Structure formats: C-alpha cells, structure tokens
Amino acid sequence: MKVTRIMLGRLQQTPVKGESGSDFRLYLFRAPVIVGNGSDERSCSSGTVIIYSSGVKRYFRPAELSGLRYDCVTFRLNHADRQNAASLDLPFDQPVELRDSFPVSSILKNMQTQSVSLGRLKEEFMELSMRQIFICICSEGEDPETELPDIPRYAQLKALRDAVYDDPMGVWSVDEICADMRISSAYFHRIYRQAFGVTLRQDVIESRLIAAAELLETTDLSVSAIAERCGYFSDSYFMRQFRLHKGCTPTEYRRRAAEK
What we know:
The strands form two sheets. Strands 1-8-3-6-9 form a five-stranded antiparallel beta sheet. The protein has two domains: about 1-140, Regulatory protein AraC (Jelly Rolls); about 150-260, Homeodomain-like (Arc Repressor Mutant, subunit A, Orthogonal Bundle), CATH 1.10.10.60. The protein is of the alpha+beta class. The protein has helices at about 80-90, 100-115, 120-140, 155-165, 175-180, 185-195, 200-220, 225-230, 235-245, 250-260, and strands at about 1-10, 15-20, 25-30, 35, 40-45, 50, 55-60, 70-75, 95. It is globular, with a radius of gyration of 19 Å. The chain is built from ten helices and nine strands. About 25% of the residues are buried.
C-alpha cells in the first residue's frame, strides 16, 4: 500500500464530483454531508467516512450553509492489499457513519505529521496506519450497541475538540467554556485529559500547527506570515513549537513536502 497524499481540514462550499482517478480516496467528513447523486442521495452526519475505489465517480455536497469540511487521504492498493481489504469486508464506495470519529481523525493527524519526518520507515508507518483505519471502519458494524467512552460529558468534550480542529484560529477560553458547561476549570481539565490524553491547550497548539503545515505545503507565504496567520506573534516561538511537534523547522518541512 502506498499513501500518495494527505489533506486535513479542507474547507469547500461547492460539491465534489468526478472520477477518483487511479488512486483510492478516503474522506472523513467533519460536517454533515450529502453523498450520492440524484435519487441515490443520502444525508450523513459529521464523522462519516467513505472510501472511493479507483476510477469510481464521486459526488458529495454540503448539507449545511457552512460548507464541506473534510480530511482526505489518497492511496494505492496492490493485490495483497485488496485481498486484505476483502477479508476485512471493507466497505468501498458507501458512507459509514462512525459512532466516534476520534480514532480515525487521530491516525490521520499522526500520518500527516510523520509524512515529512520519517525516513526509510515512512512507507511502513503509513501502511500500518491505513490498516488501523480500515479496522476502525470495519469494527463499526460488529457491535451496534457499543457505547461511547464512559467519561463525564464526553459528547460535549468531543464536540469541543472537533470545533478546535475545525477553527484552530478561534479564541478558546477555558473560563468561558467552563462557564457554558457550568463546571470548574479543574474538573474540566481533568475530564478533558481523561477523554483525550492531552489538555485543551495542547489540542489548540496542535490544530494551529496542522494549519501551519497545510499553508507551508500549499502556499508561498513566508514563515513569518504563516506564524502570524496561525496566531503566533513571535516567529522564534512559532519555529520552536513547530520543530518540537513536527520534528523539523518550518523551512525544512516545506522543502521536504516539495521534494515529496
């Protein structure tokens, strides 16, 4: 299996249509979406995933005025990969509404981070990551009674975390969040870390660095301009944060992305 491209946090107002080309495409929708065409259209919730086979016609459009929000990874399957997918009964070309999209979303974030950081082990890492995603998708149909994690206010916390990654430049005030949820900040920090293993601040930083990585790959903006756009008022602090989380400087990341 070969991963050819990873795109996170894509925003689009217009429908996506046309053939998927020679690559397979996996989409994780982060907002409600309508999948299909004409009489076969289906309304799907946020957290829906679909894997389009190579050469298959795609069509999906926004279900809300806010537009499409999605992550996407394109990849190629060899004969052994196709046999493995068949043994898992992996559903191609049909939407699957995940009860909890966090595991798949987290794997995709790790894949993007490592896409320009790993050396000779990168392809193996990507393949293993995709296999984990396939297992997450296939497990949806095994036990429909499976409940969300038994963590207080998990649904609210998950919605908050999704919002952070959808709007990384937003102002995320713990005091305001706690006031809305009517809980103390100490309790909020405890259940947030219990739910996701990180703090809200760490998620805000990670979401902004993901946005910065996307800008480094897709624009010619200077590192300074990207730092400012991502909420950093100090270029040096931004570069330290980026290196700490991504394993290389912004300039190195851009160069490796261009070479890739």
